[in-house]
């Protein structure tokens, strides 16, 4: 269990030390009023304590992502631990922190607005469409699974279950954030964390050998690690979905110093959850071959259910049902809420979008296509969530890098992971079956070329802002 516990310690140390470094680079000011106070509207801009914000953010960004994704990623063996640790600390934590605090600094701005300000209008138009597609895909994917399980264990049929879930989605989307989400979600976030800790403790005392990372088992499979692992395990390492959720909580922050605890902290907690479930997948089924067979037989839900019931008994069974039904629903509703906020920002240029009736008029057109997509096969939807998700994350990292560059701050903390993720998404779309399904080497070459072009663009930005800095220095000298 050395690799598992070493990874756990590194995640904790990453929060203790690296998150503070990230915070110093950003530069907080608790004397500046946050949008929760300066723009209070009793709907989205409502002050909340940091611990509520942390648990709500955790539930919003997690759902079943760090469970299902980690179990699937465990097929790559203990190398999954490395990606979870490195990704969470140096990519996901940075991504989530800047998406939250930049939104807060810009009046609770949505992610596409930040992209437009720092990457240009064309990028904003593209990311507006991409973000809405991602939100609707996530909402649909995280609705179909729970509805299927409800139909299996109750007399309610699938379509009726979908209708019930979507009725709740509409309510959660149009009601003030402190009425439903602010009251219930901190408790549900705590249950999600308790579920993971209980599984971890049971694993330690189960007597089953937990695999360590060695050269022999570095990659016990036929699929290439790069770039598939980085897309398979997104929640729990880095996920673009997070930056679409961060403005929800950024609009509730009481002070700027809460950002590190809320956003970076929630990412590290999610990394811990992913680490536990990846370990559970490898350990419980005696290696990657056994896990692969279990996934083929029962899918991620069957794997989670078997692990939970065997390790935790009847309580585990209840937690498994809770996880498969409640957790994705709590992610789907905030995804729809984010869609409503993004679309409201787009339409606000043309019409006044204030008031609950008008909010409802924005929400319903989003809900109709999402309801239809939820009737499509879950696994088909999820394949397209992965690449879209990581592409959004890449745009957010570049947005943070340009923000830091413009303010003459240490931009490498965002630009280095941005280059890494650019290489991931550039190659993945050409190689993956849901993409162009091209030869691995050809895909690698194309991906490398695209990455070099993007790096070239960023070098021009560095030179541009260095010149501006030098002009500023010369002006002050004069």
UniProtKB/TrEMBL annotation:
Topology in the lipid bilayer: Multi-pass membrane protein
Keyword Cell membrane recorded: yes
Record-linked Pfam families: CstA
Parts of the chain that traverse the membrane: 67-94, 125-144, 156-177, 184-205, 225-250, 262-287, 307-331, 359-381, 387-405, 412-430, 442-460
Repeat among keywords: no
Alphabetical keyword list: Cell membrane, Membrane, Transmembrane, Transmembrane helix
Listed GO CC annotations: plasma membrane
Compartments where found: Cell membrane
GO terms (BP aspect): cellular response to starvation
Domain called CstA N-terminal: residue spans: 3-163, 295-424
InterPro entries registered for this protein in UniProt: CstA (IPR051605), CstA_N (IPR003706)
PANTHER family (alphabetical): CARBON STARVATION, INNER MEMBRANE PEPTIDE TRANSPORTER
Stated family: Belongs to the peptide transporter carbon starvation (CstA) (TC 2.A.114) family.
Official protein name in the record: Carbon starvation protein A
Organism in which the protein naturally occurs: Planococcus donghaensis
């Amino acid at each position: 269990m050395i690799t598992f516990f070493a990874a756990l310690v590194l995640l904790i140390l990453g929060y203790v030390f690296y998150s503070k470094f990230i915070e110093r680079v950003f530069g907080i000011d608790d004397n500046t009023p946050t949008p929760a106070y300066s723009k209070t509207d009793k709907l989205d801009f409502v002050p909340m304590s940091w611990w509520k914000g942390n648990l709500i953010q955790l539930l919003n960004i997690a759902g079943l992502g760090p469970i299902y994704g980690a179990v699937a990623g465990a097929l790559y063996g203990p190398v999954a631990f490395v990606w979870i640790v490195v990704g969470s600390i140096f990519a996901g934590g940075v991504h989530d922190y800047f998406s939250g605090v930049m939104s807060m600094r810009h009046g609770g701005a949505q992610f596409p607005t930040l992209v437009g300000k720092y990457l240009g209008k064309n990028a904003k138009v593209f990311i507006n469409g991409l973000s809405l597609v991602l939100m609707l895909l996530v909402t649909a994917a995280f609705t179909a699974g729970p509805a299927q399980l409800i139909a299996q264990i109750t007399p309610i049929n699938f379509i009726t279950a979908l209708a019930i879930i979507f009725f709740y989605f509409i309510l959660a989307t149009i009601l003030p954030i402190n009425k439903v989400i602010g009251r219930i979600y901190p408790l549900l976030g705590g249950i999600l964390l308790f579920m993971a800790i209980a599984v971890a403790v049971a694993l330690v005392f189960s007597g089953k050998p937990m695999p360590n990372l060695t050269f022999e088992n570095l990659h016990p499979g036929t699929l290439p690690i790069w770039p598939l692992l980085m897309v398979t395990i997104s929640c729990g390492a880095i996920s673009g979905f997070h930056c679409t959720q961060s403005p929800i909580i950024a609009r509730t922050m009481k002070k700027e110093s809460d950002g590190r605890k809320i956003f970076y902290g929630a990412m590290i907690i999610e990394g811990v959850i992913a680490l536990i479930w990846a370990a559970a997948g490898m350990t419980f089924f005696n290696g990657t071959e056994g896990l692969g067979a279990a996934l083929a037989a029962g899918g991620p839900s069957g794997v989670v259910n078997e692990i939970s019931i065997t390790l935790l008994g009847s309580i585990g069974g209840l937690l498994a049902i809770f996880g498969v039904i409640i957790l994705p629903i709590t992610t789907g509703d905030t995804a729809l809420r984010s869609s409503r906020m993004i679309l409201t920002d787009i339409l606000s240029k043309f019409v006044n979008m204030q008031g609950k009736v008008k909010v409802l008029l924005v929400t319903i057109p989003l809900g109709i296509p999402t309801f239809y997509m939820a009737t499509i096969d879950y696994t088909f939807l999820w394949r397209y969530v992965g690449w879209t998700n990581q592409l959004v994350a890449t745009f957010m990292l570049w947005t943070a890098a340009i923000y830091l560059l413009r303010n003459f701050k240490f931009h490498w903390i965002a630009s280095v992971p941005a280059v890494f993720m650019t290489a991931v998404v550039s190659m993945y779309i050409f190689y993956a079956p849901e993409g162009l399904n091209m030869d691995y080497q050809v895909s690698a070459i194309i991906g490398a070329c695209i990455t070099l072009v993007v790096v070239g663009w960023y070098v021009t930005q560095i030179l541009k802002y260095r010149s501006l800095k030098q002009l500023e220095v010369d002006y002050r000298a004069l």
